[in-house]
Amino acid sequence: MTLRPFILSLLTFTTLSATAQESPCPLPSEGPVQNLIFVAKPTEENCRLAQDLVDTLDQVRRTFLMAPPVTLVIGEQAGNASFDNGHIIRIPQHLVFSDAQGGTYQANTEQLKTVVVHEYGHAILKEIWAQDFNEEFGELFTGLEEISTIAETNLELKISSRAVRQMSAQLANSDAYSLYFKTLPAYSELYADALAVIFFDDPAVMYKALYYPQIPANKEVYIEPRNFAHEHSAEQLHAHPDEHTKLSLVRSFIGKNMPANPEQKRHLMKRLERAMTLAIRDELSTTSTPSLEEANTRLLHYFLEQNP
Ligand SMILES: [Zn+2]
């Protein structure tokens, strides 16, 4: 991305000054995490968590040989994590889920590691899509990257500015934005889940990351289809449609064909990436939306076609 050199020089400066002033939490010299920002003051506890997450993403880099640079923001307490489609991953230091009675459950470090790998999967895929779909979404990705850069500066300086809201609103009005959010999120969620499942050698790892005791049934039905160890049905997916679950027939297939070593892991993710690009090209070439069955069958067809 054209903005990357600017970001790196800015971050080198801000990271050094933050380290000198207050951060007891230095970054290692290599790895995909280029900057670490704490929303709350860095403490021994959240620094240890951040180091765990930074190390985990470095292991992802070494396994998959892909390393788009990201900024990791350790937030305070929240019910979710996110990737901003620029270069910022936000992870709360306390990821908290609620039950129907108002009780809460705090995710453990293993769950947070899974979540950060999932978010990093989105970052890897965005880098691939910025090339594969440059014509359709190049401007959108550049705009999102610009917003990310401003948001990062704001986080560093602990200020908020109208620029991020204004630029986001402007982007949200574009045709590319509507097309992106109509077509691509289900593929991105599948890829991000698959990266975590394959990295951790555990088809159930996404389910385990989001599951908690006393999870309400109306929430559990949206995480169960993300369990690659289960055989999902089209009927089940129709009952609870969501971009996180739409392609779960492919999740079941991957769960039954787990790779055995790093080379196979890289190969599987490559096949998935290529198959998704072909399926998305098909979707973009027509105004009609495929049914859930069609979307899963087509993606599997392209996946099997990619030189196993
Ligand atoms: Zn996601």
Describe the structure.
By secondary structure, the protein is an alpha/beta fold. The protein has two domains: 4-110 and 137-175, no CATH class; 179-305, no CATH class. The chain is 61% helix and 10% strand. The chain is built from 13 helices and five strands. The protein has helices spanning 4-21, 44-64, 109-132, 134-157, 162-172, 175-183, 185-199, 205-210, 217-223, 234-239, 248-256, 262-284, 292-305; strands spanning 33-38, 70-78, 82-83, 88-98, 104-106. Strands 1, 2, 3, 4 and 5 form a five-stranded mixed β-sheet that branches. Strand 3 (82-83) and strand 4 (88-98) form a beta hairpin. Helix 7 (185-199) runs antiparallel to helix 12. The protein is globular. The model is unreliable at 1-21 (pLDDT under 50). Zinc ion (ZN) is lined by residues 118, 122, 189, 192.
Task: Give descriptors for this structure.
globular, binds zinc ion, five-stranded mixed beta sheet, 13 helices, disordered N terminus, 308 residues, 2 domains, alpha/beta
Structure described in brief:
The protein is α/β, with parallel strands linked by helices.
Mean pLDDT: 90
Cofactors, ions, other ligands: zinc ion
- Say how many strands there are: 5
Q: Which bin fits the share of residues in helices?
A: 55-70%
Looking at the structure, what is the overall shape?
Answer: globular
- Sheet bearing the most strands, described? 5 strands, mixed
Strand percent estimate? 5-15%
Span of the ends, CA to CA: 31 Å
Structural class: alpha/beta
Radius of gyration: 19 Å
Which residues sit in consecutive blocks of at least 5 with pLDDT less than 50?
1-21
Oligomer state equals: single chain
H and E order = HEHEEEEHHHHHHHHHHH
* Tally of alpha and pi helices: 13
Task: Count the domains.
Answer: 2
